[in-house]
Design brief:
The complex is a heterodimer of chains A (511) and B (320).
Chain A: E1 8-17, E2 20-30, E3 34-39, H1 46-53, E4 61-66, E5 69-71, H2 76-82, E6 84-87, H3 99-104, H4 116-129, H5 145-156, E7 163-167, H6 175-191, E8 195-199, H7 203-209, E9 212-217, E10 220-226, H8 232-239, E11 261-270, E12 273-282, E13 286-290, H9 297-305, E14 310-312, E15 314-316, E16 319-321, H10 326-332, E17 334-337, H11 351-356, H12 374-387, H13 404-416, E18 423-427, H14 435-449, E19 459-464, H15 467-473, E20 476-481, E21 484-490, H16 496-505
Parallel strand pairs in A: 3-8, 3-9, 6-7, 7-8, 13-19, 13-20, 17-18, 18-19
Antiparallel strand pairs in A: 1-2, 1-4, 4-5, 9-10, 11-12, 11-14, 11-15, 15-16, 20-21
Chain B: H1 2-27, H2 34-59, H3 67-84, H4 90-115, H5 119-138, E1 143-144, H6 152-158, E2 160-161, E3 165-166, H7 167-185, H8 187-197, H9 199-204, H10 209-235, E4 237-238, H11 244-257, H12 268-288, H13 293-319
Antiparallel strand pairs in B: 1-4, 2-3
Helix pairs in contact in B: 1-12, 2-7, 2-8, 2-10, 2-11, 2-12, 3-4, 3-5, 3-10, 3-11, 4-5, 4-10, 6-10, 7-8, 8-10, 11-12, 11-13, 12-13
Classes of the chains: A alpha/beta (511), B mainly alpha (320).
Chain lengths: 511, 320
């Protein structure tokens, strides 16, 4: 075999889901003793591409060559047998089993009977080969996140892989664990005959570890080069989506320093950590939360709204909030729509019930026994449906029969019908709905904040992974990384590249 | 045409029930005599009251396996309190029994809602505890026709209102109407269905889902208690195992009910129709054959049939 022949090569890899092209004619190769990193925004196609390599997804178009031979794996068993191992982002360990038991899980040595001793020896052998010193005879749940990650990798080495795919391996590691881990990966490359594919969206890690970097954007490979020929700015630029152009919504100019503050947050503790948040929402302002998946945007909003246990103290319309549940916050005029639409609707129930269940304590049901006022509820539901241009057959139909866009209109529509609403939190409101419906949501959001009657204006917190839509509708964008707000951008300072680079580097751009 | 088809799809259980009565009537003309029909109706009523109770907990998306034992406990409580203590007021004993059953419901709610044990396991555990209490009360024996029992004891199950309407029918009508009103026309009922449909969505719109489940467990237990009082009264006896054979019939009526009216949703009118159908088939079979094994076949068959219908309807509904 020629020295510089790629061990794994993929020409024109393409994967479609219906009309959506997740991976679009990607050419890719990786050599022995090489680390190639794949970087891209959420949904850029990284995971889909790897699942094509391991046979989880079938290949729609393109040819894959492994050690020079054309291959087409139907499942992970086949690819693993050939020598392609993948370590997934989520931990797949059995907590109460020991490291050794976890490593041999699924391919225990011995026929029928499991030989503990043999298993342990085999695990130790892998450990020594990788120059690690983790104890393998204690239950893995007693180990730290970094050690568990290494056990996963040892498991991947059970079959002597020739290609190792690491999917966001550092995502679950603590601060001090990342660097030793990266050193370990480099060491593996240097000492063993193996090619490593490293997936991450933390750009500094990639520059520290990679031989080559490949950028995926909207399923396309927009850049591939050796790391010494690249700068971080080049990579970030390549990651920017070339702009699915939505119509621009008109945004009224306001001087927020003169407008009342609705929400004022400094910090809060949840999920066992203190988070630096430090942001404000004014009346009539659309504030965007941008960040990569896992950067803590949703968690922050959930903590404020009372969905997530948190130690907090923040100002909402001048009142200090320290303890709350969602009922209290709705009564005070704050409501949040869920990231997954399924979490916001009652599938088998009618449109009327889906709308009116939110208002049974505010006028749609009598006091005392709480008898539901049927006519009034029906009228109220009709009004919400027509105010929000929902397309439906009858108000009595089950909500599950509507399209995603129409369901979202109902969820948002009922939320803004709350009488004293002053802050609306939208978590990924345009997720999975078509372009037309998206634009209607942008318009709605601006209409809520730019209402001609200044009294009726509210504040909106808009959480999104799509930077373009935030640039379109927001007055201010805060960028999250590792659970904290890193930097805020005013509308006149909006810069796509800056915002994205803050998100991937987790550092302020100005120092 | 479409309308009729839709109507039939929603009301088929009612048509099927009428058709069943007619068929049994043709096979055995005695079947359709008023006395027999009233008899069938009153036997449907006790299972019906239990079923209406179970409908409430099913509406929240949970279940209660201790329902059968709750029925037994209530019958034993009444029998022992009135027969072996100095308590002689029937009304007081009835109220006390229902309060105790309410506590059993709260206990189930505590295990599931507060501690977090899946309702299936929690209520299974409760069912044995409750059965144990019932056995302790009666020394594991059936208590028959004690002389201390007031006349009222047998009235709930055997008496007639105005001399014609069997008491169980009266009770079922009252209970059915109350719970129907509660589940369909009040805020609390809307919340009951909301949490059954999606507890997460409840969080987002500020409905306390846990409180709804507590209510569901308590209503179920109290109505099972009432069913137990009725059953003891009808048999003029009480035993710690009397409710066990009623659990599967009650479960069947609830699931049959979910194929009626609001398709795929547990609802009170459906449960009522289901209870009548169940009693019709049961009594009808007794009239035309003496093979006891047939009863088990029919019981199991009907429950499975109802389950299959509900699951198929739901799967179809979710694909839409």
């Amino acid at each position: 075999m020629v020295e510089n022949q790629a061990i794994l090569r993929f020409n024109g890899a393409t994967k479609r889901f219906g009309d959506f092209v997740a991976v679009d004619h990607v050419d890719f190769e990786v050599h022995n003793k090489e680390i190639v990193s794949i970087i891209g925004e959420n949904g850029a196609g990284k995971s889909t591409f790897c699942k094509m390599l391991t046979g989880v997804y079938s290949i729609d178009e393109g040819e894959m060559y492994f050690e020079g031979k054309k291959v087409n794996y139907k499942n992970t068993t086949e690819s693993m047998k050939a020598g392609i191992s993948m370590v997934y982002q989520e931990r797949n360990l059995v907590g109460m089993l020991t490291g050794a038991q976890n490593i041999v899980l699924g391919h225990e040595p011995g026929r029928g009977f499991i030989s503990e001793r043999q298993a342990y020896e085999r695990a130790i052998e892998i450990r020594d080969r990788l120059h690690l010193t983790i104890p393998l005879d204690v239950p893995v749940e007693e180990l730290g996140a970094g050690e568990q990650q290494l056990i996963e990798i040892m498991r991947a080495f059970y079959n002597n892989p020739k290609v190792l795919i690491l999917d966001e391996p550092t995502a679950s590691l603590g601060e001090g664990e990342v660097e030793p881990f990266l050193d370990f990966v480099k060491n593996v490359r240097n000492t063993m005959d193996i090619a490593i594919i490293f997936i991450s969206h933390k750009i500094e890690e990639l520059f520290a570890i990679s031989d080559r970097i490949a950028v995926l954007t909207d399923g396309k490979n927009t850049l591939t080069d050796r790391v010494e020929n690249l700068t971080q700015i080049q990579v970030i630029t390549a990651m920017l989506r070339t702009g699915k152009s939505y119509g621009r919504v008109p945004v009224a100019e306001k001087d927020f320093s003169k407008l009342p503050v609705i929400l004022d947050v400094e910090k809060a503790s949840y999920d066992g950590e203190e988070h630096h948040l430090n942001f404000q929402v004014h009346k009539g302002e659309v504030v965007g939360f941008y960040g990569l998946v896992g950067s803590g945007r949703t968690e922050c909003a959930e903590a404020l709204f009372g969905l997530r246990k948190a130690e907090k103290s923040y100002l909402f319309n001048g009142d200090t909030i320290t303890r709350c549940n969602t009922r209290n916050m709705i009564e005070r005029g704050m409501i949040m729509t869920p990231e997954k639409r399924a979490n916001g609707m009652f599938k088998a129930l009618s449109l009327v019930d889906n709308i009116c269940n939110l208002f049974l304590k505010s006028g749609l049901a009598g006091k005392g026994a709480g008898v539901v006022k049927k006519a009034k509820s029906r009228e109220f539901a009709d009004r919400i449906l027509s105010d929000n241009d929902v397309k439906y057959q009858s108000p009595g139909q089950a909500i599950s029969g509507l399209s995603g866009g129409n369901i979202q209109k109902i969820i948002i529509g009922r939320s803004i019908a709350i009488e004293n609403i002053s802050l609306l939190i939208l978590d990924e409101p345009t997720n999975g709905i078509d372009v037309g419906a998206k634009f209607e949501i942008y318009q709605k959001v601006r209409q809520l904040t730019d209402d001609e009657d200044e009294e009726r204006r509210i504040g909106v917190l808009f959480i999104s992974s799509e930077i373009d839509e935030l640039l379109n509708v927001c007055d201010k964008i805060y960028v999250f990384a590792d659970g904290n707000i890193i930097q805020g951008f005013e509308r006149n300072n909006f810069d796509k590249q800056n915002i994205l680079s803050v998100a991937v580097r987790g550092k302020r751009t100005d120092g | 045409m479409e309308k009729w088809k839709d109507m039939f799809a929603k009301r088929w259980l009612l048509f099927f029930t009428i058709a069943t009565a007619v068929i049994f009537g043709i096979i055995s003309p005695a079947f359709l005599q008023v006395a027999n029909l009233l008899n069938i109706l009153s036997s449907a009523c006790i299972v019906g009251v239990m079923g209406v109770g179970l409908t409430c907990i099913f509406a929240t998306g949970e279940l209660d396996f201790s329902a059968g034992s709750q029925v037994s406990l209530a019958s034993c409580l009444m029998a022992v309190m009135l027969g072996r203590t100095s308590l002689h007021s029937y009304a007081a004993a009835l109220i006390l029994t229902l309060v105790i059953l309410g506590l059993v419901g709260l206990y189930n709610a505590f295990l599931h809602v507060k501690i977090g044990i899946p309702a299936f396991i929690a209520t299974l555990g409760t069912s044995y505890l409750v059965k144990g209490i019932a056995k302790a009360l009666t020394n594991s024996k059936t208590v028959n026709n004690l002389p201390q029992w007031p006349k009222a004891f047998t009235f709930m199950g055997q008496g007639y209102l105005f001399g014609i309407i069997p008491m169980p029918v009266v009770i079922l009508v009252i209970v059915g109407a109350l719970i129907l009103f509660y589940t369909e026309y009040t805020r609390a009922g809307k919340y009951l269905y909301a949490v059954g449909s999606n507890p997460t969505a409840c969080d987002y719109i500020g409905i306390d889902g846990k409180a709804q489940k507590v209510k569901g467990f308590v209503i179920t237990a109290v109505l099972c208690g009432l069913a137990g009082v009725m059953q003891g009264s009808q048999m003029n006896a009480a035993s710690p195992t009397l409710g066990e054979n009623m659990f599967v019939p009650a479960l069947t009526t609830v699931f049959l009910g979910a194929t009626y009216g609001k398709i795929g949703v547990f609802n009170v009118p459906g449960t009522l129709v289901g209870a009548v159908l169940y009693a019709l088939i049961n009594q009808g079979l007794l009239m035309i054959t003496s093979e006891l094994w047939l009863k088990n076949y029919v019981q199991g068959g009907m429950l499975l049939f109802a389950l299959v219908m509900v699951v198929v309807i739901r799967v179809k509904g979710s694909k839409k």
